[in-house]
Amino acid sequence: xxxxxxxxxxxxxxxxxxxxxxxxxxxxxxxxxxxxxxxxxxxxxxxxxxxxxxxxxxxxxxxxxxxxxxxxxxxxxxxxxxxxxxxxxxxxxxxxxxxxxxxxxxxxxxxxxxxxxxxxxxxxxxxxxxxxxxxxxxxxxxxxxxxxxxxxxxxxxxxxxxxxxxxxxxxxxxxxxxxxxxxxxxxxxxxxxxxxxxxxxxxxxxxxxxxxxxxxxxxxxxxxxxxxxxxxxxxxxxxxxxxxxxxxxxxxxxxxxxxxxxxxxxxxxxxxxxxxxxxxxxxxxxxxxxxxxxxxxxxxxxxxxxxxxxxxxxxxxxxxxxxxxxxxxxxxxxxxxxxxxxxxxxxxxxxxxxxxxxxxxxxxxxxxxxxxxxxxxxxxxxxxxxxxxxxxxxxxxxxxxxxxxxxxxxxxxxxxxxxxxxxxxxxxxxxxxxxxxxxxxxxxxxxxxxxxxxxxxxxxxxxxxxxxxxxxxxxxxxxxxxxxxxxxxxxxxxxxxxxxxxxxxxxxxxxxxxxxxxxxxxxxxxxxxxxxxxxxxxxxxxxxxxxxxxxxxxxxxxxxxxxxxxxxxxxxxxxxxxxxxxxxxxxxxxxxxxxxxxxxxxxxxxxxxxxxxxxxxxxxxxxxxxxxxxxxxxxxxxxxxxxxxxxxxxxxxxxxxxxxxxxxxxxxxxxxxxxxxxxxxxxxxxxxxxxxxxxxxxxxxxxxxxxxxxxxxxxxxxxxxxxxxxxxxxxxxxxxxxxxxxxxxxxxxxxxxxxxxxxxxxxxxxxxxxxxxxxxxxxxxxxxxxxxxxxxxxxxxxxxxxxxxxxxxxxxxxxxxxxxxxxxxxxxxxxxxxxxxxxxxxxxxxxxxxxxxxxxxxxxxxxxxxxxxxxxxxxxxxxxxxxxxxxxxxxxxxxxxxxxxxxxxxxxxxxxxxx
Amino acid sequence: xxxxxxxxxxxxxxxxxxxxxxxxxxxxxxxxxxxxxxxxxxxxxxxxxxxxxxxxxxxxxxxxxxxxxxxxxxxxxxxxxxxxxxxxxxxxxxxxxxxxxxxxxxxxxxxxxxxxxxxxxxxxxxxxxxxxxxxxxxxxxxxxxxxxxxxxxxxxxxxxxxxxxxxxxxxxxxxxxxxxxxxxxxxxxxxxxxxxxxxxxxxxxxxxxxxxxxxxxxxxxxxxxxxxxxxxxxxxxxxxxxxxxxxxxxxxxxxxxxxxxxxxxxxxxxxxxxxxxxxxxxxxxxxxxxxxxxxxxxxxxxxxxxxxxxxxxxxxxxxxxxxxxxxxxxxxxxxxxxxxxxxxxxxxxxxxxxxxxxxxxxxxxxxxxxxxxxxxxxxxxxxxxxxxxxxxxxxxxxxxxxxxxxxxxxxxxxxxxxxxxxxxxxxxxxxxxxxxxxxxxxxxxxxxxxxxxxxxxxxxxxxxxxxxxxxxxxxxxxxxxxxxxxxxxxxxxxxxx
Lengths: 915, 497
Prior knowledge:
The complex is a heterodimer. Chain A is built from 29 helices and 18 strands. The model of chain A is unreliable at 1-23 and 554-558 (pLDDT under 50). In chain A, strands 5, 7, 8, 10, 11 and 12 form a six-stranded antiparallel beta sheet that branches. In chain A, strands 1-2 form a two-stranded antiparallel sheet. A two-stranded antiparallel ribbon of chain A has the order 3-14. By secondary structure, chain A is α+β, with helices and mostly antiparallel strands. In chain A, 38% of the residues lie in helices and 11% in strands. By secondary structure, chain B is of the alpha/beta class. Chain B folds into two domains: 4-56 and 249-288, no CATH class; 75-241 and 301-495, Alkaline Phosphatase, subunit A. In chain B, a hairpin with a 4-residue loop joins strand 4 and strand 5 (136-139). The chains are: A alpha+beta, B alpha/beta. At the A-B interface, helix 13, strand 17, helix 24, helix 25 and helix 27 of A face helix 3, strand 2, helix 6, helix 8 and helix 9 of B.
């Protein structure tokens, strides 16, 4: 890539004279001759291979592309220069392709460095990087050119001015049938209904189109369509990826958050802030952004490789953050300074430090204050009801009943407890026992609610006899973290035995222990079936307060009458119902939005190697564009908050440009910058730089309103042109980058599928929540995704609600360039393959939908074949058939029936292309 | 009624390759071309040292394309032993491992690898014998493959960057341990297209027991256009949606296709000059061809009895072996018909440790007694069959695994843990030096020590054998000129004939 010109230049900004220290080694006499003879040819004033210069001290201290300082004054052996001149690896050793330095020369260099590496004249000189890269310069706020009084949309002014330069012009405006179809497909991913088309075509008002644009932007379908574009960029999926590729069942809340944010026209600056630091403002789902990428669940025992895995996780987060929000390939600076853009290796590690405390995983969604209070109030009531039922069971001589996997209550005489121990002797399958939570309830005062005093949040501490090693989801701390289910549980490391203990912060009167193996009810192994609960009071004496024999089915505390037994049975049923209600109230929904912990310091890594730690770096931003001024040990959340604020600062030259370009791209198929996640030197330059800057400025002026930008673009003449090619224009601008016509293009996979269901009248528009599956159920620990082959209403929601399986394209529609969510996909390729044709022509999905479409036509178009054919074309292509088409259709329907026509129409180019 | 052949002259023009090339610089073909390449930057001139992005006709993206240099091999089959086959029990003979059986690895006390602590060095579970003229030592686990020792080139000094299966398979198949990078087969068909115009240019043949551990990522297109992804099918599981839908007769299906072609032709007439529309029309024609040719190629009944016997396809005592043998025969038939890249998997996803693939952590002897016979005779037969048909002259055969296994048994177990520090891959056929052994592991087979090489170099070498410059074949994505070998790689010249 040597043909690429370099853009980062070093500029000396401060030149002062420092004093030289007297040393045994003299720079001028001993060192400079070595540099002159062996180094300056490649690393001197005329040439700086790998950006390294050795003729000025500032450059020596800054080092070259490796990111390592060439010299660490006082530390010869740690200095990169010495490592390179003494290396035994011929690929590393300097000088390259020449005789090595003599031992004497190396010794001199070492002494010189040991003495502080003095060089005359410049030892307090500082340096600063600058760049001439357009995307790093401030927004220019250009005024729209004056080209034509009739063009009052600034976008048109910019576009036409550029076209005029090449003696081109805009194409004529498309007719209303084309306009409404284009608008619906682009903005909603669904074709308009015949009624919508008729209404628009017949609308006499002069602003009919503007009204239609407003209606379209107000449709909830808009967010569902445009969220997909963003989800592509953040490589969102509902599974983890890699070998096991298990489901990520609570990721969908992030997907729903994105849809909602777009539908509500959330200002883009807030949209960005929440995704980076939403946990600081009570928007938990938004940080799903940080951990949307693949995550390898298989963690080896080899510590070196585990460190490498973690480094790769963070690399993924750093890279996608840089690409998605800043349009910069920050990830390229992991091993050395960026080859094309002014991003230092240090900058990469500064940004890594921002995210160093982000761990893959789920967190509970915080509820709004009012909702939390409501639930607390209700759960107190239900809890009291349960207590009274339990008391009645007690009075009748019963107990809690059989042990189950979900939740068990052991009630006992109130006792003052310091410590509560749960000792397991046997499990149902002999395996190491598992508890997802161990709750200890205080005995309430007459008017208060019982409280779980075992929570870590309340100051209690969990300990255990042992822990099954190697599983993040199984930890001793999970015994009292308030999170339920297998994902937040403890497993002992002893077959069928073990104990767990809760030390309470203060002695408290308790009367119940509640425990379960998996309160989400997915696992039924490892259940303690023989156990004892002991309590130690302030006196330190242990007393057994409950044990498994108390619970044997049919066993009662005292002899009971048949009436009592019957009553106990009823009470137990009642209790079960109440319990379910309580579980539901207490259930804290989680979202796969990352877990945050205060990290250890971040080091710069030589050549990106986690085993080669260099200096500590503080959380920060790209140094050329500012600084957060945070200390290396800044609080975790503060790092992300400050980073987010820097990203959304209107002075940041990249954020607005990158986003308006993405918005533009999905209207026209290509961005003004055709490399939407690379605004660096290696990306493509903007086709309309002034327009891009005007749009970016307008975006900020509008309060970062995405819908405002849509409205501007959609109401431009540029958007409303015909697609018809023109020989003269083709000769000048084959790809229509200058927009002398509207570029037609094939719909994406999701829009094709949704449109098929929509015209068949079976699209289920229920929004949000857990997704539906395109694959058959599978429980193997290494998940196997076998596509479904039968399709019904359960799979008729919009495809954005299909569970996205990483690396699996999905049946039928995956072949239509559906991203695999492995890497960020800011711009989908559009290929045309025989597999697409086979899938769309022969799949059971198409045949099912074709049948439904035929059914709909029969139901709505009456008995005449002609009317049915007409209606089929109106539904699918929003127009009447031509005479020739009618003739072909008639023959097809006569020979094979209406479903065959439906099958064919759903495969036509016209149906699949944005007109 | 219009036939599929009667699309408009404009459409015909677009489908014509010469017309396409003539149009590429200024005209119609380029519109979709720029889309396909996901960039509007100029193609590098072949004379420069810059990246080479092949020129692709969107209407026939699989048309054969020129290699960068004269290729030794015209096509390639990659036999992938999923789950990490043990090199020390098969083809990397270590006398010291026999001698030191039961002792700890010197200098690596209490070694912790993927699953945990290591126990003692353990001699190969199968006796090794000299094979062929060359006398290459290979074990009794693979007697049929061993018969072809003189045609094989062993690279004993392979290393990988990961010790977990998913990333390991990703690395071996795509050049990156992370998810979402284009597979080698996608790169090769992107560069070269195919000689078969009625079959997919890149076929992935999953094991009869199921898909391999990294599943689709082994043959995915990553960020390359989907047209270059592998098409998965094997001898018992056909291409999805290949056959005419249930309840539709062949005649009706043809009539429906003709109606579709007629509608599309009319539409194209109304929208002249859009090659993407023409490409979609062409894709239905290719699909129809595949409906004829794929069932023919997967129908193994025409193979004579002695061939079936040679592969072990008649071994009714072992259904999995039979299935894999049929897959091997299918691989040969695909290569014969000009398919560019065939990926043949031996071993599936994990359905229990060491069940379904070569991942023998705990009970290696018991597990390899199952996996060995499934692999050995069919692969031995495939090599022999290619040779007897003269196909080894211009076909490259690759045998690989994501990494190797430890020379020790795991502490408290009777199996071997993952070992990315030294393992073996093999090459055979066109352009490959054989019999030949390149590189070596240490005396126990633990770490590569002599001519240490990597997956990057292995890939660079494979590309060279196919006439491609690993350093120049590229695709622009998210700010990078992406390459199969990333910024790494070097051709292992020593293994070239």
